[in-house]
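User: Can you predict the 3D structure for this chain?
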Amino acid sequence: MKFLIVDDDENICKILTFYLDLYGQCHACSRASEAILLFRNALETEPFDVVFMDIDMPEMTGHELVTILRGAEETQKVPFHKTFKLVMVSAYDDIKNVTASFFRGHAECFVPKPVTESRILEALRQADILK
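Assistant: Here is the predicted structure, written as structure tokens:
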């Protein structure tokens, strides 16, 4: 499994990488522009299976970034069943952001911060991303 972790808090990137490293290859970045470049390059060779996305970031919101990543998949004509699984990770657990994550971004799950290993793994198992 191949993971892309996008969070402007580098500590969150390190924590998620630590928890997920046992389950696959992790790539983490703290800037939206870097995430777009990594994602587009991966589409050419070995796409990401799962994207972990923060909502509140300096360059653009996580919702905006997800729209760009989904658009890149559409441009490459990635079949729906092969599109990345989205996990939103955020301190914002209000209904507006949670709803936007699921309906606009087609998220499989939403994990509130602070992230813990049990929260992450439980969410991934409930979403059938991990067995």
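The chain has one domain: 2-126. The CA atoms of residues 50 and 78 lie 14 Å apart.
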